[in-house]
Fold each of these.
Amino acid sequence: CHIPELPGADGPVPLYSDLLLHDMGVAGIPEGAASRSELRTPPLWGLRASAPYLHDGTA
């Protein structure tokens, strides 16, 4: 069900996410299927198109 990479124009594109829920301690903020003690691993799809990065836009 989970695929490790997606096809891209220049070859396979790695997801850099396992698309699973991880128990990281109590955060107190439920998000989607994640309980209060799980954090969702966000995918990085489209990250390249969302520049600039960092709090001050230097990257």
Amino acid sequence: MPPVPHDHLELAPAQRFDVLIDFSTYPPGTRITMANGFDTGAMGQVMQFVVADSGPEPFTVPAELSTITELHERDAVTTRKFDFRIGDVNNHDGWLISHMAFDPDTIAAHVRLGTTEIW
């Protein structure tokens, strides 16, 4: 998959991204905070970067960041229906999964390793 520039990312529950950040335009000592726009509390500040002096070698972003294994619908062992949307969670916008507030401590589906499911 080729690199794609973004100034923000929207992530649904269980969604993941690999991120490469170019700090070359920032002076050493600059602090940059990655923020979660849905949470102003402890979860609001995801992580902070402190720009260091440049390294000994320049970095070139590869033309291909990763390969994605093609999945086939015919190999699915289970079909599940989930409704993902943003809605009211304790008087704040948050993720709802099938009309229930997202809870990181609740497992909504147990998927056997190495299997394919349709969601």
Amino acid sequence: MAISKKMEQAINDQINAEFYSAYLYLAMACQADDMQLKGLASWFNVQYQEEVAHAMGFVNYLQERGGRVVLQAIEQPRVEWPDAVALFE
């Protein structure tokens, strides 16, 4: 059974959202590393990897059902926070 175009678009939008979240966590990991907070940077890197895994899960799901993956532009995330607390706000 072919996946509907509406569902295909929704999944492609979700793939984009997952990659945006991954970018955001990666930016946070880099900021934490710049702050010499290695443990926090490591934790954000784990979150980054989870978001990429989520995106790839949607990619695989769509491909297995004959849908077309259309990668969209990823919005640039915020890249600076004043302190570690701000990373969680």
